[in-house]
UniProtKB/TrEMBL annotation:
It comes from Vulcanisaeta souniana JCM 11219. Residues 16-53 form the TRASH domain. GO terms for molecular function: zinc ion binding. This is Transcriptional regulator. InterPro entries: TRASH_dom, Znf_MYM.
Amino acid sequence: MGKLRSNIGSGDKLVCENCGAELTPERIYVHEINGAKHYFCCEHCAHEFERKLRIAH
């Protein structure tokens, strides 16, 4: 797994850190992992992302 990316920037669209789906105010799931906030489209993607982190370490 590559470097974790922060996808919050001025003018940038937010995308799910697991699947890349565009996030909207109606469809955003914020999950804190190791003290950092990460943004996902759903709870499933958040758990999948966290699982991939555990495997990578």
